[in-house]
Write a structure and sequence with these properties.
Largest sheet: 7 strands, parallel
CATH class of the largest domain: Alpha Beta
Helix content: 25-40%
CATH superfamily of the largest domain: NAD(P)-binding Rossmann-like Domain
Number of strands: 12
InterPro entries: Epimerase_deHydtase, Lipid_A_modif_metabolic_enz, NAD(P)-bd_dom_sf
Pfam families: Epimerase
Protein name: NAD(P)-dependent oxidoreductase
Number of domains: 2
Strand content: 15-25%
CATH architecture of the largest domain: 3-Layer(aba) Sandwich
Distance between the termini: 27 Å
Strand order of the largest sheet: 3-2-1-4-5-6-10
Length: about 280
C-alpha cells in the first residue's frame, strides 16, 4: 500500500514509519528541511517538502496515495500544549490544515485516512457514564479543542461517504525517543541512577508508541465500516512511583523514593479497538 504520512520526523512518526516499512508498505512523508538530508537517516522513505496548513503541500502529498495517516502537529514550543503567542494562527495551521488534508485525500481518491487524535479531548470526565468513544469531548486546552474539532471533521468526511476516514485517540504516548534524553521518564531514571533522592507523585494513562502504530495498521486493514469512527487507544495507568521503584531495583541505586503510586480516576474503555484485534504487547 502507498502511504502518505504527516509528522514522519517526529517521535510517533518514526515508530509509524518503522511499522509501515516492516509491513511492506511504501511511505511518502513530509519534511520541512532538505529531503536529501532526512533521506540519509531513513533511506527507504520518499521524503517531500511539506508543511501543515499549506494547501498545495496537502494536494501533493495525496497524489497517488492509497492511504493517508495524519500524525503531524504544529506547536508553539517544546510541548504540544504550547500554542505560542497567536492562538488564531495555531488553530488555523492545525485545524484548517487538517481540513486541507481531508479534502485533498477525498479529491485524490485516497482509500483510507487515519487521524491521530489525543486523550486531551477528555480533560473533563462526566461521572455518570463510561469513558468510551461516545463520551462528550470536553477539552480544557486549545490543543485538545483542536484535536476535538478535527475528530468532528473526520466524522463528517467518513459518515458522509466522502472518504473512509477514522480517528485513533491515544492517551499519553511513551517509548524510546531520538535522542533518548527526550524519552518519557528519562530524567527521573537518570536521577535515580545517579543516586539522587526523588519525589515521584505523578502518572498518566499511557500507551506505547509501537502500540499506537499497530492500532493504525489495524485500521488500514478494516473495511468501510470504520468510516467516521473514533477508537480509544490506551494500555494502562503508569505512575512515576512505579517507574522510580523499578529503576531503583534495576540499577541497585541507594536513592530514597518518596511519594506514592498514583491511580487513575477514570478507566478508559478500549473495547472498540480491541474488537478489531488490538492487543498491547507491553
Amino acid at each position: 500500500m502507498r502511504i502518505a504520512l504527516t509528522g514522519g520526523t517526529g517521535f510517533l512518526g518514526r515508530h509509524l514509519i518503522d511499522s509501515l516499512l516492516q509491513s511492506g508498505h511504501q511511505v511518502t512523508a513530509w519534511c520541512r528541511s532538505d529531503p536529501d538530508t532526512v533521506s540519509s537517516r531513513t533511506p527507504h522513505v520518499h521524503w517531500i517538502r511539506g508543511e501543515l496548513g499549506q494547501r498545495r503541500d496537502a494536494e501533493q502529498l495525496a497524489q497517488s496515495a492509497d492511504a493517508m495517516i495524519h500524525a503531524g502537529w504544529y506547536r508553539g514550543g517544546d510541548s504540544f500544549l504550547n500554542i505560542d503567542a497567536d492562538p488564531e494562527r495555531y488553530w488555523q495551521i492545525n485545524s484548517v490544515g487538517a481540513l486541507q488534508l481531508l479534502e485533498s485525500a477525498s479529491r485524490a481518491g485516497v482509500n483510507r485516512f487515519v487521524f491521530i487524535s489525543s486523550g486531551a479531548v477528555h480533560d473533563q470526565v462526566l461521572p455518570d457514564r463510561p469513558l468510551d468513544e461516545t463520551h462528550p469531548m470536553r477539552p480544557r486546552t486549545l490543543y485538545g479543542a483542536c484535536k476535538a474539532s478535527i475528530e468532528a471533521m473526520v466524522h463528517h468526511y467518513g459518515s458522509s461517504g466522502k472518504l473512509v476516514a477514522a480517528s485513533v485517540r491515544p492517551t499519553s504516548i511513551y517509548g524510546l525517543a531520538e535522542p533518548a534524553s527526550q524519552s518519557k521518564w528519562f530524567e527521573l531514571v537518570a536521577q535515580i541512577k545517579r543516586g539522587k533522592n526523588v519525589e515521584a507523585t505523578g502518572g498518566s494513562k499511557t500507551v506505547h508508541a509501537s502500540d499506537v502504530a499497530r492500532s493504525v495498521a489495524l485500521l488500514l486493514q478494516q473495511d468501510d465500516s470504520i468510516a467516521g469512527e473514533t477508537f480509544n487507544c490506551c494500555d494502562r495507568m503508569i505512575s512515576d512511583y512505579e517507574v522510580a521503584m523499578l529503576a531503583k531495583q534495576l540499577t541497585g541505586s541507594p536513592s530514597q523514593i518518596s511519594g506514592h503510586e498514583k491511580m487513575a480516576k477514570h478507566e478508559i474503555e478500549t473495547a472498540k479497538i480491541r474488537s478489531i484485534g488490538m492487543r498491547s504487547r507491553r
